[in-house]
Design a protein that fits this description.
Elements (H helix, E strand, L loop, with lengths): L2 E2 L19 E5 L3 H10 L6 E5 L2 H10 L4 E5 L7 H10 L5 E6 L4 H9 L4 E4 L4 H41 L3 E5 L5 E4 L3 H5 L3 H4 L10 H14 L7 E8 L12 E12 L6 E10 L1 H15 L9 H18 L3 E8 L2 H8 L1 H18 L5 E6 L2 E7 L4 H14 L4 E3 L2 E3 L3 E8 L6 H17 L4 E4 L2 H20 L5 E10 L4 E13 L3 E3 L1 H11 L2 H21 L6 E5 L10 H11 L7 E6 H6 L1 H13 L3 E7 L6 H6 L4 E4 L1 H5 L8 H13 L2 E5 L4 H9 L4 E3 L9 H8 L11
Parallel strand pairs: 2-3, 2-4, 4-5, 5-6, 17-18, 20-22, 22-23, 23-24, 24-25, 25-26, 26-27
Antiparallel strand pairs: 1-3, 7-8, 7-11, 9-10, 10-11, 12-14, 12-17, 13-14, 15-16, 19-20, 19-27, 20-21
Helix pairs in contact: 11-12, 12-13, 15-16, 17-18, 18-20
GO molecular function: cyclic-guanylate-specific phosphodiesterase activity
Catalytic activity: 3',3'-c-di-GMP + H2O = 5'-phosphoguanylyl(3'->5')guanosine + H(+)
Protein name: Two-component system response regulator
Amino acid sequence: MVIPGEQPFFAPPGQGHESSDQCRILVVDDDDALRRTLPRVLAREGRQFAECGSVGEAIAILEREHFALVLLDYRLPDATGLDLLDWLTHQHRDEAVIVISGEDAIDAAIGALRGGADDYVRKPYHVAQLQRAVDSTLHKATLERANRAMSQRLRASERLHRFLVESSPDLIFTLDTEGRFSYLNPRVRPLLGYERTALLRRPFSTLVMPEDIDRINSLMFARGNTPGESFNIELRLRRSRDEPTEGSSESITVSLTVIPMPDREGRRSTGLYGVARDISERKRAEEIITFQAYHDQLTRLPNRVLFKDRLELAIAQAQRRTGALAVMFVDVDRFKLVNDTFGHAEGDALLRGIAARLSSTLRRGDTLARLGGDEFTVLLPDINHPEDAETIARKIVDALTPPFRLSHGDFRATVSIGIALYPRDGDGAEDLTRHADIAMYQVKRSGKNAFRFFDPELNTHYRERITLENDLRLALERSEFELYYQPQISLKGKRVVGMEALLRWNHPTHGQIGPATFIPVAEEIGMIGDISHWVLERACGQLAQWRDAGFSDLRMSLNLSPHDFSRKDVVEMVTECVERHRLPSSQLELEITESMMMQDSAGVAAKVRAMRDAGLSVAIDDFGTGYSALAYLQKFPVSTLKIDRSFVRDLDGPSTNPIISAITGIARGFGLQLIAEGVERMEQAETLRALGCDIMQGYLFAHPAPAEQATAWLNVAPEIDFAAP
């Protein structure tokens, strides 16, 4: 039990109360009423109380906590108060103790006081008597503790100061009024190699390097006679050539603090007290840290921070002189291929080699920096014409023509370079660097291994791209996506046998946007997975509605992005959706591109095989436009080939396009269904039918339309002419 007090730590009669955070009192008494009463009677501000009823309980509490005072009953159930006093003595505890006893014999009081009690109060007692005893004991204990602490500090002070001076890692010394050593601590020997006795009475300038002597003498003699003033300076002290020291250099750099020592009156100086701290390692570390802060650790080139500083300075100078400058953004082409194929150590070696060749092409005064990864920037100050920057860009491209010799063989590196000119392309460091970066990315998209100047139209394009990205991130949330459907027609059956789900984005400002515009963006920003999941859910839901309306043999076709096949759970995602909508697996057809098969045949083939095992149909979209090979058709257990619209567009007659003839033969040979897309003219349909292709889709039959219109097509009687759009 802890009871907060209401009065200070101790209050000797006639004095103000002194507070203490440690005024905790333990009441040890087997009388419950007394244990409850004493905290109220003795309450003071800052006091706290704990209580127990036996010696054993008291020892248990004292082993956990410390108290300022113990109020101890003489007679306790398990022992006497003397036993607890013995325990406190053996444990070297400093709690004050007041024994409260009803014993009449004087021996009890003598035994308690001899046992270490600070006071003895006989029962019955007056409350004021007990209060005075507690206040007096606490006051006395506080004074004794203070006196003991003060004595210990005084005794330790001399030892401490002697130890600090003699054992200090710093050189500590005193100088007389003439600037000669009157004392040096032992540190002078390992630090500088001099014996203390050899330096006594010799001038301090004996240790100072020649170039610093005038500076230190002017400070010491200018201020040495003014007590109370001190100064701090960095200088170099010479090492002895005759004795070994902690370093190999001829001098060390120290931070020197000098304080005048006043006489008794404090009016004049009797000499100087100095402390010299060796900061040689710190200075070297600062130089290293400064270098690391402004340079790339791999190539030792300036980093982004230093490049920006130099660019801002160059811009300021160009503004004063009405001059021009150029900024290049250089990105290594296919660098990831080196890291992935040969490892990062080889990649680092390549970057160092590229940095060396880039440096060799620049003028004195130009700055080459590495921003990180495989990105470099170049500052070309003082250019007179854009052709100057073009000349250096060509030199860079030519310098990288010879192959780099890596441990695994030769590698020919190329770079894409974007160039921004000041003041034409911007008047600030950020704008110039960003515009050069934009120009560089345009080179990347145009085939790499070239250079290009920034064009303001590129900036407009990138602003539009950023806006498109931001809007696309909100499109799902705002329900702006919609599925359109285009029917797949069986000419033989004169009916709709399938629907291809086509995604549209109903942009609130730009209207309807086709997937060719936003799907690449979605893939780049990592949204394609969520979009594909939405398409799958919506298409399966629509197919379920059509099945409930009686179109039980209708097939739904939809495209999956190559990025979807990088997901480990793509098969589970599709099959779970099909099962949830209670659809036959064979009525959902997933379209993959031919190029995707070539990129990761093993991984994609396994997932295609799993889809086919689950009963799903898989079609190769745009078949024939890539690198079709029979070996891939054997590896990929697809069910359908879709003839690309580029072949259908040029179709004039049954013998004018041997590729389509070959594709139809491949489909028959592998037992695959064949669909022609992009059919727009009746002549094309008739030629395809003659070649053995029955199922078609295209504008000849219908444009993609919302689900309501697609439902109307399903309800059209078979004799309706499908040639009408």
